[in-house]
């Protein structure tokens, strides 16, 4: 089955001087330009390509990787604006992604970087982008458990903290007390379910909660010490930024973990770092 707006593996059915023709199923054949064809490609070979509709609404194939396929989010730069809408850099040469005015939460200007969701418009069949995420999220119950690891995309910043897209399906919130390191719109990272409120809203954390979090970090500290020859230039005097860069945790949690390891006799805390006992 051919999936326009996604990566496909298509068979080479004809070779020409200017490129190769690929079997595109119900769409017939599509041309992959010579500059993109793999070296030594022959009839019967399969080539991985991204399929989209060009400016003439004809099926086109490319080996270029778009910022986001249909059903995905990606950060794109607005290249131009006309009476139809805004056009964002999609990562494909000579093909920007249309964001119709009806799909914009605010009017964009060239040069802006925005988080975009890519989908196929059912009415026109065109692949377009939107910044109106609510109609794509929270359509199913949030059946998560506390401390469950999830995939996050930072989507918005507000007075309450950062709104994040959880597993591509739900909205979640990271409050300031749970923010460590640099967060920015479009950043993809791992997080954990902190709480699901009675109204279904999701609170998120960038680290595990409670004892399980501490145990997990303690194991990671010991593993890192073993890999680094038994010592690390990190201690309770290190900056929060240094600690986060090494273990993606807060300074307070790190201090509690090395304190516990010290009491257990597993490490020694020195003036300029820690080492295995």
From TrEMBL:
Domain of life: Bacteria
Domain S1 motif positions: 69-132, 145-207
GO terms, molecular function: nucleic acid binding
Matching SMART domains: S1
Signal sequence bounds: none
Family statement: Belongs to the CvfB family.
PANTHER family: CONSERVED VIRULENCE FACTOR B
Protein name: GntR family transcriptional regulator
Organism encoding this protein: Vibrio ziniensis
């Amino acid at each position: 089955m051919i999936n326009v707006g996604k990566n496909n593996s298509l068979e080479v059915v004809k070779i020409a001087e200017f490129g190769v023709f690929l079997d595109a199923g119900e769409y017939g054949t599509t041309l992959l330009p010579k500059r993109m064809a793999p070296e030594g490609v022959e009839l019967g070979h399969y080539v991985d390509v991204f399929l989209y509709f060009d400016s003439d609404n004809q099926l086109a194939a490319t080996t270029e990787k778009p910022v986001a396929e249909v059903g995905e989010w990606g950060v794109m730069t607005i290249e131009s604006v006309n009476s139809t809408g805004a056009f964002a850099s999609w990562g494909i040469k000579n093909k920007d992604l249309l964001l119709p005015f009806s799909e914009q939460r605010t009017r964009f200007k060239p040069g802006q970087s925005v988080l975009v969701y890519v989908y196929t418009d059912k009415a026109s069949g065109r692949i377009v982008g939107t910044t109106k995420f609510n109609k794509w999220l929270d359509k199913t119950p949030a059946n998560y458990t506390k401390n469950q690891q999830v995939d996050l995309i930072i989507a918005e910043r507000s007075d309450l903290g950062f709104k994040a897209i959880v597993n591509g399906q739900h909205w979640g919130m990271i409050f300031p007390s749970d923010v460590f390191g640099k967060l920015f719109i479009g950043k993809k990272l791992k997080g954990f379910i902190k709480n699901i409120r009675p109204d279904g809203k999701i609170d998120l954390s960038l680290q595990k909660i409670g004892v399980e979090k501490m145990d997990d970090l303690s194991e990671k500290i010991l593993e890192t010490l073993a890999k680094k020859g038994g010592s690390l230039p990190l201690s309770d005097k290190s900056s929060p930024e240094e600690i986060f860069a090494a273990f993606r945790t807060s300074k307070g949690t790190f201090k509690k973990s090395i304190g516990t390891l010290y009491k257990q006799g597993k490490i020694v805390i020195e003036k300029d770092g820690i080492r295995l006992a």
